[in-house]
Amino acid sequence: MTQKLIIIGAGMAAGRALEHLFETAPDAYEVTLFNAEPRGTYNRIMLSPVLSGDKSFDEIVTHTAEWYEAHGVITRFGEKVITIDRKAQTVTSDTGDILSYDKLIIATGSNPFIIPLPGHDLDGVIAYRDLEDTNAMISLGEVPNAKAVVIGGGLLGLEAAAGLAIRGVEVTVVHIMGHLMERQLDEAAGYLLRRALVDKGITVKCSANSKEILGENGKVKALLLDDGTELPCDLLVMAVGIRPSVALAADAGLATGRGIHVDDQMVTSDPNILSLGECVEHNGDVFGLVAPIYDQAKVIAKTLVGVDAAFVNKEVATKLKVTGCDLFSAGDFAEGEGREDIVYRDPAHGIYKRLVILEDRLIGAVMYGDTADGNWFFGLIKDKEDISKMRDTLIFGPTFQGGSPLDPMAAVAALPDDTEICGCNGISKSQIVTAINEGAHSLDDVKAISKAGSSCGSCLGLVGDLLGVTLGDDFKMPEKDVVCKCTDLSHDDVRKLIVAKKLKSIPQTMQELDWKTSCGCHVCRPAINYYMVATWPGEYEDDGKSRFINERVHANIQKDGTYSVVPRMLGGVTTPDELRAIADAADKFNVPTVKVTGGQRIDLLGVKKEDLPAIWYDLGKAGMISGQAYAKGLRTVKTCVGSEHCRFGTQDSTGLGIKIEGAMWGAWSPHKFKLAVSGCPRNCAEATCKDLGIICVDSGYQILVGGAAGLDLRETDLLVQVATEEEAIEVSCAFYQLYREGAQYLHRPYKWIAKVGLDWIKGQVVDDLENRKSLADRFHYSQQFYQIDPWAERAKQGKDAHEFAPIADFTKVAAE
Amino acid sequence: MSNFIDIGSINDIPLRGARVVRTHDGDIAVFRTATNNVYALDEYLPGKAGPLSNGIQHDEKVTDPMYNWVFDLATGEAQGADKGKVTTYEVKCKNGRILISAAAVSRSVAAE
Predict the structure, then answer these.
(1) In this prediction, what percent of chain A has a pLDDT beyond 70?
(2) pLDDT tens column, A474-489
């Protein structure tokens, strides 16, 4: 006999509880779901990305009308329950309907706390809680010169402020405490956070007491502080905290304190009424973060079907979803008796890490700027592990523990089974491994089956590692690759250490990283040289002796020891004058073969090494520069004729190709980087097998990445579609920079993508606009040092002349 | 015993660099290592490796740019699994000048 279950509130807690219930017992209950908001469950945590424009509301809806229908849930959205009659086992809604229940779940969540300042009821004073609040902030962004004040410098307030700032609103944050996010951060990290927000144009006032909200015609006008400062505003957002919503439960006579009292089974003082989420109080704790609430959802689903389960409140870690402010905090980091700190600071890069240790146990961690190891530290805190043996290197994270450094995969493999990988959804390593063993062989599958990575996504890198560890050869993750026999470190280790230890030359790197050979070999020298070039633009002096011959002499060596010369032709476009100069040079230097390349360039093959500077000189006179056809770097942008001439062309593909090549030429990368731009989906420029391809369509530009047409054949994947040329160029540069900064030497983009996951890359260059911009900025910064024509330097300034001429020639002497 | 011929200043070859001496019997690669030692070897091991002056140096060895064979600069022996040897020539550095054995640059003459 099907029982009746009524749920009051369709927040994230209720949504997740229903999922678990339907997984175990799809037909046990006939479910009626009330929600005061006129909509079903969405991911409330992701309102901040909606506010900042990184996501649309539709993207954060977790349960659609189709989902409710498929599971037979009767929805009453926009309808509020006003009374509960426990004796009759009925609820009454604001439409007057009376419904009976066998079991009732109260999931009314919380109400934002509104400080009862004078003027708090003025129009334009809002909280930051639901879609309506979010939309109010978004529409403020459309008003020119709009101003907003946010009261509250905690997680929510700062996300609101950052979102408003992105929308073009002038924002001031007013915080009563001495530094931002004082519950999660210590002063130093709070300072860095403040600096980052100020850089975003946000004004931050700490130790500031609000006195009164001033209005005009019933509408908010300004916030008055008790020192007399008046902060004008069109909107005032109060984000000072939440209070469990208990009124309905208290009116029904249920036991309540700060929240609705529940036992370990999530049952209230009435055995037929259960409760979960932000409205409950369990053993004196109330809840505001999603992880423990998802645990409650699991328990409540089991209780409903009569399976034993008990909720245990676990420690949680915090991350801030403000792009460009990467912070992590977990555990207890107040100063105290017997507590010791390990602190790492990198002022130039805005990195701060602090670990708090008590009696050889890690008890707290605060990180700002580089939070990659956050989950690992969090695991150590939860497991109360003895860290005395790794104390010296603890702050560098899991990769650098033990006698010899471990690779990141080994570190992941060594994590205990119950290590929490996905903090949002409370998914442990063993649950992910189980999902993988049951057939989830991609990041998307793991997300769908285990839910890991489906909320904020910051754990997907680790999930990818677990796929690699679990599937072994079946998953295309790079094996443990040490750079070469000169070291036990992997490329990733070396890259990370070069940055962490600020290693700025090859000898210094080999010294500090304990190289086993005195000066490396032909494998590691070029790799380190590249990492130096990529990490320290403008500081590092390129070491030609650590480059393969082609890059050292800026031409391609051929089997007979002669070289080939390929001048650059942006976008594959040339002119009669250039062609004449090429023809003249070919005649003058007896070039045996002139050939058109696959990348739409002209190749002069068979040039003698000592003739190289002279032929470059002649080509340079006609305005041509090196095509860098020899470089582990930007090669060619191939284009079709596009809308200028072609009747099918949707955009000026040739022009875009020229612009991109103009921006990118001269850049070095882990491996060669080839692009193409096609003017329509007929794809005459063959963009779908390039490292980065663009296909123009009527509505914009599809940016495709990770193609290959060499030893491996691989079609590109869609990174993103953008509307304008400017965005296409910015995304391309940002993607290239991410690859340049992250990939290991000699990995083409498709190999790197297989390792880090396309979703992660999308997160970096598609979803996170701030990050996209800073990647592009770093690329352009680097380019100012590398967009120098190497041919001109050698042909006109005599650079590296020793490379081209013999030291002595006895064939001529003897001929005398 | 042998005569030496001055082919240039030590500074004509950068550290970890190499340059070629042209002779009627083929090119000789002259190396200057990171530790400031000079070596002279045939530029090519015919059909197997070279031009060695274009390789990457490390320790007292050079890696061939074409097939990644590694040669010991002092002995000319291929290292590791590769079997082969390039001819080495007497060379020395004196008062900042590089001196190569006369026999090296006029082998056909010397053979007479």
Answers:
(1) 93
(2) 665 434 467 888 887 7
Q: Flag the least confident range among A89-98, A342-351, A358-367, A503-512.
A: A342-351
Residue with structure tokens 């219930």? A21
Nearest residue of A to residue B24 by CA position?
A811
Residue B19 near residue B13 (C-beta atoms within 8 A)? yes
A3-110+244-304 and A125-240: same fold?
yes
Q: What share of chain A is helix, strand, coil (3-state, %, to 5)?
A: 35, 25, 40
pLDDT digits (tens, 9 = 90+) for A515-554: 777 778 899 999 999 999 999 999 998 999 999 999 999 9
Calpha distance A92→A324 (Å, rounded): 47
pLDDT for the residue numbered A459: 64
Angle between helices A524-535 and A725-742 (to 10 degrees): 130
CB–CB contact B24 A814 (8 Å)? yes
Which of B7, B12, B50 lies closest to A802 in CB terms?
Answer: B12
Q: What is the pLDDT of residue A497?
A: 78
- The pLDDT of residue B108: 55
Contacts of A519 in chain B (CB under 8 A): 34, 58-59
Reply yes or no on whether the pLDDT at A715 is more than 70. Answer: yes
Burial class (CB in 10 A: 0-12, 13-18, 19+), A795: buried
Q: In terms of CATH, what superfamily is A634-786?
A: Sulfite Reductase Hemoprotein, domain 1 (3.30.413.10)
Nearest CA in chain A to B66: A559
* pLDDT tens-digit readout, A383-399: 888 888 888 788 888 77
Contact A439, A445 (CB under 8 A): yes
Tell me the C-alpha distance between A469 and A477, whole Å: 9
- In degrees to the nearest 10, what's the CA dihedral of A812, B51, A585, B13? -70
Q: Is the pLDDT of residue A197 over 60?
A: yes
Span of A170-174, A271-275, A496-500, B59-63 with lowest mean pLDDT: A496-500
Task: Show the domains of chain B with their CATH numbers.
Answer: 4-111 (2.102.10.10)
| Share of residues in chain A with pLDDT > 90 (%) | 55
* Interface mutation vs chain A, best among B3, B43, B58, B59, most A CBs within 10 Å: B58
Burial class (CB in 10 A: 0-12, 13-18, 19+), A162: buried
Decide: A632 and A670 in contact? Cβ < 8 Å: yes
Q: How far is B68 from chain A (nearest CA, A)?
A: 8
Q: What is the ipTM of this complex?
A: 0.92
- CATH classification number, A125-240, choose in 3.50.50.60, 3.30.420.40, 3.10.20.310, 3.60.40.10: 3.50.50.60
Residue A155 binned pLDDT confidence (cut-offs 50, 70, 90): confident
Give the DSSP per-residue string, B7-51.
Answer: EEEGGGS-TTEEEEEE-TT--EEEEE-TTS-EEEEES-BTTTB--
A-B C-beta contacts closer than 8 Å: 84
Q: Which of B21, B55, B63 has its CB closest to that of A808?
A: B21
Task: Give the phi and the psi of residue A739 in degrees, each rounded to 5.
Answer: -65, -45
CA distance A751 to A739: 11
Q: Are B8 and A548 an interchain contact pair (Cβ–Cβ within 8 Å)?
A: no
Tokens 């060594």 belong to residue: A414
For residue A458, pLDDT over 80 is answered with no
Whether B68 sits inside 8 A of A522 (CB atoms) is: yes
Q: Where are the domains of chain A?
A: 3-110+244-304, 125-240, 491-547, 634-786
- A743 sits in the region (left: phi over 0; alpha: psi -120 to 50; else beta) called beta
The fold of the A3-110+244-304 domain, in CATH, is: FAD/NAD(P)-binding domain (3.50.50)
Say which DSSP state A765 is in: I
Pairwise CB contact (< 8 Å): B7 & A811:
no
